[in-house]
Amino acid sequence: MATHALGTTGLQVSRLGLGLAALGRPGYINLGHAEDLARDYSVATMEQHAHSVLDAAWAGGVRYFDAARSYGRAEQFLGNWLRLRQISPAEVTVGSKWGYTYTANWQVEAEKHEVKDHSLPVLQRQWQESQTHLSPYLRLYQIHSATLDSGVLTNTPVLTELARLKREGLFIGLSLSGPQQADTLRRAFPLRIEGVRLFDAVQATWNLLEPSTGEALQEARQAGLGVIVKEALANGRLSPRNSEPAVIEPLTRQAQRLATTVDALALAAALAQPWADVVLSGAAAVEQIESNLKALDVAWDEEAATALFSLAEAPEIYWQTRGALPWN
Questions:
Q1: What is the CA radius of gyration of the chain?
Q2: Looking at the predicted structure, is the pLDDT value of residue 111 above 90?
Q3: Strands 226-230 and 278-281: what pairing?
Q4: pLDDT tens digits, one per residue of 34-57
Q5: For 299, phi and psi rounded to 5 degrees?
Q6: For residue 6, is pLDDT > 90?
Q7: What is the pLDDT of residues 77-90, one digit of tens each?
Q8: 259 backbone φψ class: left, alpha, beta (φ>0; ψ -120 to 50)
Q9: Rounded-to-integer distance, Cα 60 and Cα 293, Å
Q10: Stated pTM of the model
Q11: What is the pLDDT of residues 195-207, one digit of tens each?
Q12: How far from 127 is each of 75, 95, 99, 135, 165, CA to CA, in Å?
Protein backbone atom coordinates (compact mmCIF):
# COMPACT_ATOMS: atom_id res chain seq x y z
CA MET A 1 0.00 0.00 0.00
CA ALA A 2 1.30 3.40 -0.94
CA THR A 3 1.01 6.14 1.66
CA HIS A 4 -0.40 9.63 1.21
CA ALA A 5 -0.96 12.74 3.30
CA LEU A 6 -3.78 12.88 5.85
CA GLY A 7 -5.62 16.03 4.80
CA THR A 8 -3.22 18.97 4.99
CA THR A 9 -1.28 17.59 7.99
CA GLY A 10 1.57 16.06 6.03
CA LEU A 11 1.20 12.91 8.15
CA GLN A 12 1.65 9.86 5.91
CA VAL A 13 -1.13 7.29 6.14
CA SER A 14 -2.17 4.13 4.31
CA ARG A 15 -5.59 3.77 2.67
CA LEU A 16 -6.47 1.07 5.20
CA GLY A 17 -5.67 1.57 8.86
CA LEU A 18 -6.15 -0.59 11.92
CA GLY A 19 -8.24 0.43 14.92
CA LEU A 20 -7.56 -1.39 18.19
CA ALA A 21 -10.97 -1.11 19.88
CA ALA A 22 -11.48 -4.88 19.74
CA LEU A 23 -7.87 -5.84 20.49
CA GLY A 24 -7.20 -3.99 23.72
CA ARG A 25 -9.97 -5.21 26.02
CA PRO A 26 -11.83 -8.49 26.68
CA GLY A 27 -15.32 -7.08 26.12
CA TYR A 28 -16.51 -5.30 22.99
CA ILE A 29 -19.66 -5.06 20.86
CA ASN A 30 -18.33 -6.61 17.64
CA LEU A 31 -20.34 -9.66 16.63
CA GLY A 32 -18.40 -12.78 17.65
CA HIS A 33 -15.81 -10.92 19.68
CA ALA A 34 -15.46 -13.72 22.26
CA GLU A 35 -14.63 -16.23 19.52
CA ASP A 36 -12.05 -13.86 18.03
CA LEU A 37 -10.16 -13.96 21.34
CA ALA A 38 -10.81 -17.70 21.88
CA ARG A 39 -12.29 -16.66 25.24
CA ASP A 40 -8.77 -16.40 26.65
CA TYR A 41 -8.58 -13.04 28.33
CA SER A 42 -5.28 -13.15 30.17
CA VAL A 43 -3.32 -9.95 29.58
CA ALA A 44 -0.27 -11.80 28.23
CA THR A 45 -2.34 -13.86 25.79
CA MET A 46 -4.30 -10.87 24.57
CA GLU A 47 -1.13 -8.84 24.02
CA GLN A 48 0.43 -11.68 22.03
CA HIS A 49 -2.79 -11.97 20.02
CA ALA A 50 -2.83 -8.21 19.36
CA HIS A 51 0.79 -8.31 18.24
CA SER A 52 -0.01 -11.10 15.76
CA VAL A 53 -2.78 -8.98 14.21
CA LEU A 54 -0.50 -5.94 14.15
CA ASP A 55 2.20 -8.01 12.42
CA ALA A 56 -0.27 -9.11 9.75
CA ALA A 57 -1.49 -5.55 9.25
CA TRP A 58 2.07 -4.26 8.92
CA ALA A 59 2.95 -7.00 6.42
CA GLY A 60 -0.09 -5.93 4.39
CA GLY A 61 1.09 -2.33 4.24
CA VAL A 62 -0.97 -0.75 7.03
CA ARG A 63 0.81 2.35 8.32
CA TYR A 64 -1.92 4.08 10.34
CA PHE A 65 -2.89 2.70 13.75
CA ASP A 66 -5.64 4.07 15.98
CA ALA A 67 -6.17 3.58 19.72
CA ALA A 68 -7.90 5.32 22.64
CA ARG A 69 -7.56 5.60 26.40
CA SER A 70 -10.82 3.66 26.80
CA TYR A 71 -9.69 0.69 24.70
CA GLY A 72 -8.39 -1.17 27.74
CA ARG A 73 -4.69 -1.82 27.19
CA ALA A 74 -4.69 -0.96 23.47
CA GLU A 75 -2.19 1.90 23.81
CA GLN A 76 0.11 -0.29 25.88
CA PHE A 77 -0.11 -3.22 23.43
CA LEU A 78 0.50 -0.93 20.45
CA GLY A 79 3.39 0.95 22.04
CA ASN A 80 5.09 -2.27 23.12
CA TRP A 81 4.70 -3.71 19.61
CA LEU A 82 6.17 -0.63 17.94
CA ARG A 83 9.21 -0.75 20.20
CA LEU A 84 9.68 -4.54 20.01
CA ARG A 85 9.57 -4.42 16.20
CA GLN A 86 11.94 -1.42 16.25
CA ILE A 87 9.65 0.56 13.96
CA SER A 88 10.86 4.10 13.41
CA PRO A 89 8.40 6.91 14.21
CA ALA A 90 9.01 8.14 10.67
CA GLU A 91 7.61 4.88 9.25
CA VAL A 92 4.20 5.01 10.91
CA THR A 93 1.40 7.37 11.96
CA VAL A 94 -0.32 6.73 15.28
CA GLY A 95 -3.49 8.37 16.54
CA SER A 96 -5.24 8.02 19.88
CA LYS A 97 -8.20 9.55 21.67
CA TRP A 98 -9.11 11.03 25.03
CA GLY A 99 -12.44 11.61 26.76
CA TYR A 100 -13.53 8.15 27.89
CA THR A 101 -12.12 6.28 30.88
CA TYR A 102 -12.05 2.47 30.77
CA THR A 103 -13.93 1.16 33.80
CA ALA A 104 -14.58 -2.56 33.09
CA ASN A 105 -11.53 -3.69 35.09
CA TRP A 106 -10.64 -6.30 32.44
CA GLN A 107 -14.06 -7.97 32.72
CA VAL A 108 -16.24 -9.07 29.80
CA GLU A 109 -19.36 -8.16 31.73
CA ALA A 110 -19.41 -4.85 33.58
CA GLU A 111 -22.00 -2.36 34.73
CA LYS A 112 -20.17 0.26 32.66
CA HIS A 113 -17.30 -0.41 30.30
CA GLU A 114 -16.32 3.22 29.85
CA VAL A 115 -17.31 6.60 31.26
CA LYS A 116 -17.38 9.74 29.12
CA ASP A 117 -15.92 12.98 30.50
CA HIS A 118 -14.68 15.77 28.23
CA SER A 119 -13.39 18.00 31.02
CA LEU A 120 -9.99 19.69 31.18
CA PRO A 121 -8.65 17.50 34.04
CA VAL A 122 -9.45 14.35 32.04
CA LEU A 123 -7.70 15.75 28.96
CA GLN A 124 -4.61 16.65 30.97
CA ARG A 125 -4.48 13.28 32.74
CA GLN A 126 -5.15 11.17 29.69
CA TRP A 127 -2.67 13.07 27.53
CA GLN A 128 0.05 12.17 30.01
CA GLU A 129 -1.11 8.55 30.05
CA SER A 130 -1.19 8.33 26.26
CA GLN A 131 2.31 9.78 26.05
CA THR A 132 3.56 7.20 28.54
CA HIS A 133 2.44 4.35 26.29
CA LEU A 134 2.88 5.81 22.81
CA SER A 135 5.68 8.38 22.86
CA PRO A 136 7.43 9.14 20.49
CA TYR A 137 4.94 7.69 17.99
CA LEU A 138 1.75 9.58 18.89
CA ARG A 139 1.08 12.37 16.38
CA LEU A 140 -2.72 12.75 16.26
CA TYR A 141 -4.79 13.22 19.43
CA GLN A 142 -8.57 13.21 19.06
CA ILE A 143 -11.57 14.07 21.20
CA HIS A 144 -13.33 10.74 21.64
CA SER A 145 -16.94 10.83 20.41
CA ALA A 146 -17.47 14.56 20.45
CA THR A 147 -21.15 15.45 20.48
CA LEU A 148 -23.05 18.71 20.71
CA ASP A 149 -24.61 17.75 24.03
CA SER A 150 -21.26 16.95 25.66
CA GLY A 151 -20.39 20.65 25.49
CA VAL A 152 -16.79 19.97 24.52
CA LEU A 153 -16.93 22.24 21.47
CA THR A 154 -17.81 25.22 23.65
CA ASN A 155 -15.52 24.35 26.57
CA THR A 156 -13.00 27.18 26.39
CA PRO A 157 -10.42 25.68 28.80
CA VAL A 158 -10.38 22.39 26.86
CA LEU A 159 -10.16 24.10 23.47
CA THR A 160 -7.38 26.38 24.74
CA GLU A 161 -5.40 23.38 26.01
CA LEU A 162 -5.84 21.55 22.70
CA ALA A 163 -4.62 24.67 20.89
CA ARG A 164 -1.56 24.73 23.15
CA LEU A 165 -0.78 21.11 22.31
CA LYS A 166 -1.19 21.93 18.64
CA ARG A 167 1.31 24.78 18.89
CA GLU A 168 3.77 22.27 20.37
CA GLY A 169 3.50 20.13 17.23
CA LEU A 170 0.66 17.72 17.98
CA PHE A 171 -2.13 17.32 15.43
CA ILE A 172 -5.64 17.62 16.86
CA GLY A 173 -8.73 15.72 15.73
CA LEU A 174 -12.13 14.61 16.89
CA SER A 175 -14.11 11.44 16.50
CA LEU A 176 -17.89 11.44 16.13
CA SER A 177 -20.74 9.20 17.22
CA GLY A 178 -24.51 9.14 17.12
CA PRO A 179 -27.21 10.32 14.70
CA GLN A 180 -26.03 13.95 14.84
CA GLN A 181 -22.50 13.30 13.57
CA ALA A 182 -22.91 15.70 10.65
CA ASP A 183 -24.23 18.53 12.84
CA THR A 184 -21.34 18.10 15.26
CA LEU A 185 -18.79 18.09 12.46
CA ARG A 186 -20.20 21.23 10.87
CA ARG A 187 -19.93 22.96 14.22
CA ALA A 188 -16.38 21.71 14.77
CA PHE A 189 -14.35 22.09 11.62
CA PRO A 190 -14.60 25.90 11.31
CA LEU A 191 -13.46 26.40 14.94
CA ARG A 192 -10.46 28.68 15.27
CA ILE A 193 -8.37 29.56 18.28
CA GLU A 194 -6.43 32.81 17.90
CA GLY A 195 -7.12 32.68 14.17
CA VAL A 196 -5.80 29.13 13.68
CA ARG A 197 -8.08 26.25 12.74
CA LEU A 198 -8.09 23.87 15.70
CA PHE A 199 -8.97 20.54 14.12
CA ASP A 200 -6.70 18.78 11.66
CA ALA A 201 -8.70 15.58 11.23
CA VAL A 202 -12.06 13.96 11.85
CA GLN A 203 -12.90 10.31 12.47
CA ALA A 204 -16.52 9.39 11.76
CA THR A 205 -18.74 6.36 11.36
CA TRP A 206 -19.61 5.82 7.71
CA ASN A 207 -20.80 2.54 6.24
CA LEU A 208 -23.42 1.10 3.92
CA LEU A 209 -25.96 1.09 6.74
CA GLU A 210 -25.09 4.58 8.04
CA PRO A 211 -23.85 6.83 5.22
CA SER A 212 -25.51 10.03 6.49
CA THR A 213 -22.22 11.86 7.22
CA GLY A 214 -20.96 11.70 3.64
CA GLU A 215 -21.81 15.26 2.61
CA ALA A 216 -20.42 16.77 5.82
CA LEU A 217 -17.23 14.71 5.50
CA GLN A 218 -16.80 16.02 1.98
CA GLU A 219 -17.12 19.58 3.31
CA ALA A 220 -14.56 18.90 6.02
CA ARG A 221 -12.16 17.37 3.50
CA GLN A 222 -12.52 20.41 1.24
CA ALA A 223 -11.68 22.58 4.27
CA GLY A 224 -8.40 20.68 4.66
CA LEU A 225 -9.23 18.18 7.41
CA GLY A 226 -8.04 14.61 7.09
CA VAL A 227 -10.92 12.12 7.11
CA ILE A 228 -10.73 8.76 8.88
CA VAL A 229 -13.64 6.33 8.48
CA LYS A 230 -14.45 4.09 11.44
CA GLU A 231 -16.92 1.22 11.82
CA ALA A 232 -17.02 0.56 8.07
CA LEU A 233 -18.22 -2.96 8.90
CA ALA A 234 -20.86 -1.71 11.37
CA ASN A 235 -19.42 -3.78 14.24
CA GLY A 236 -19.81 -6.96 12.21
CA ARG A 237 -23.26 -6.30 10.76
CA LEU A 238 -21.60 -5.93 7.33
CA SER A 239 -19.74 -9.21 7.68
CA PRO A 240 -20.69 -12.89 7.26
CA ARG A 241 -21.47 -12.98 10.98
CA ASN A 242 -24.66 -11.04 10.42
CA SER A 243 -27.77 -13.19 10.10
CA GLU A 244 -30.10 -10.42 8.84
CA PRO A 245 -31.19 -11.65 5.36
CA ALA A 246 -32.02 -8.15 4.13
CA VAL A 247 -28.40 -7.13 4.73
CA ILE A 248 -26.29 -10.20 4.16
CA GLU A 249 -28.00 -11.54 1.03
CA PRO A 250 -27.36 -8.54 -1.28
CA LEU A 251 -23.86 -8.19 0.14
CA THR A 252 -23.14 -11.84 -0.61
CA ARG A 253 -24.48 -11.59 -4.16
CA GLN A 254 -22.29 -8.58 -4.96
CA ALA A 255 -19.25 -10.11 -3.25
CA GLN A 256 -19.63 -13.24 -5.37
CA ARG A 257 -20.03 -11.17 -8.53
CA LEU A 258 -16.86 -9.21 -7.76
CA ALA A 259 -14.95 -12.29 -6.54
CA THR A 260 -14.25 -10.94 -3.09
CA THR A 261 -15.34 -11.35 0.53
CA VAL A 262 -18.32 -9.65 2.13
CA ASP A 263 -16.15 -7.68 4.55
CA ALA A 264 -13.76 -6.56 1.80
CA LEU A 265 -16.72 -5.38 -0.27
CA ALA A 266 -18.09 -3.28 2.61
CA LEU A 267 -14.67 -1.74 3.20
CA ALA A 268 -14.32 -1.09 -0.54
CA ALA A 269 -17.53 0.96 -0.42
CA ALA A 270 -15.83 3.29 2.07
CA LEU A 271 -12.56 3.33 0.17
CA ALA A 272 -14.48 4.43 -2.92
CA GLN A 273 -15.56 7.67 -1.26
CA PRO A 274 -13.35 10.48 -2.65
CA TRP A 275 -13.10 12.24 0.72
CA ALA A 276 -11.85 9.21 2.68
CA ASP A 277 -8.15 9.38 3.57
CA VAL A 278 -8.10 6.28 5.80
CA VAL A 279 -10.64 3.50 6.31
CA LEU A 280 -10.13 1.62 9.55
CA SER A 281 -10.25 -2.12 9.82
CA GLY A 282 -11.43 -3.20 13.24
CA ALA A 283 -9.99 -6.69 12.79
CA ALA A 284 -9.59 -8.78 15.93
CA ALA A 285 -7.94 -11.80 14.29
CA VAL A 286 -5.21 -12.39 11.70
CA GLU A 287 -7.61 -13.99 9.21
CA GLN A 288 -9.86 -10.94 9.49
CA ILE A 289 -7.16 -8.40 8.67
CA GLU A 290 -6.01 -10.56 5.78
CA SER A 291 -9.57 -10.68 4.44
CA ASN A 292 -10.04 -6.94 5.04
CA LEU A 293 -6.91 -6.15 3.02
CA LYS A 294 -8.59 -7.64 -0.06
CA ALA A 295 -10.72 -4.50 -0.14
CA LEU A 296 -7.84 -2.72 -1.86
CA ASP A 297 -8.30 -4.96 -4.92
CA VAL A 298 -12.10 -4.76 -5.21
CA ALA A 299 -13.31 -3.27 -8.49
CA TRP A 300 -16.11 -1.26 -6.88
CA ASP A 301 -18.58 -0.26 -9.59
CA GLU A 302 -21.95 1.37 -10.22
CA GLU A 303 -23.81 -1.94 -10.00
CA ALA A 304 -22.46 -2.55 -6.50
CA ALA A 305 -23.29 1.02 -5.47
CA THR A 306 -26.86 0.74 -6.78
CA ALA A 307 -27.45 -2.59 -5.07
CA LEU A 308 -25.87 -1.77 -1.73
CA PHE A 309 -26.59 1.88 -0.99
CA SER A 310 -30.21 0.84 -0.66
CA LEU A 311 -29.21 -0.90 2.60
CA ALA A 312 -28.99 2.46 4.38
CA GLU A 313 -31.03 2.80 7.56
CA ALA A 314 -32.34 5.97 9.16
CA PRO A 315 -29.54 7.24 11.44
CA GLU A 316 -31.74 6.97 14.52
CA ILE A 317 -32.52 3.32 13.74
CA TYR A 318 -28.87 2.50 13.02
CA TRP A 319 -27.62 4.01 16.28
CA GLN A 320 -30.44 2.43 18.27
CA THR A 321 -29.45 -0.96 16.86
CA ARG A 322 -25.78 -0.33 17.57
CA GLY A 323 -26.57 0.69 21.13
CA ALA A 324 -28.37 -2.62 21.69
CA LEU A 325 -25.42 -4.79 20.60
CA PRO A 326 -24.17 -6.87 23.54
CA TRP A 327 -20.68 -6.60 24.96
CA ASN A 328 -19.43 -10.11 24.34
A1: 18
A2: no
A3: parallel
A4: 999 999 999 999 999 999 999 999
A5: -90, 70
A6: yes
A7: 999 999 999 999 99
A8: left
A9: 7
A10: 0.97
A11: 999 999 999 999 9
A12: 12, 12, 10, 11, 10
Q: Give the span between the Cα atoms of 95 and 217, in whole angstroms.
A: 19
Three-state SS sequence of the chain: CCEEECCCCCCEEECEEEECCCCCCCCCCCCCHHHHCCCCCCHHHHHHHHHHHHHHHHHCCCCEEECCCCCCCHHHHHHHHHHHCCCCHHHCEEEEEECEEECCCCCCCCCCCEEECCCHHHHHHHHHHHHHHHCCCEEEEEEEEECHHHCHHHCHHHHHHHHHHHHCCCEEEEEECCCCHHHHHHHHCCCEECCEECCCEEEEECCCCCCCCHHHHHHHHHCCCEEEEECCCHHHCCCCCCCCHHHHHHHHHHHHHCCCCHHHHHHHHHHCCCCCCEEEECCCCHHHHHHHHHHHHCCCCHHHHHHHHHHCCCHHHHHHHHHCCCCC
CA angle (53, 292, 19) in 5-degree steps: 55
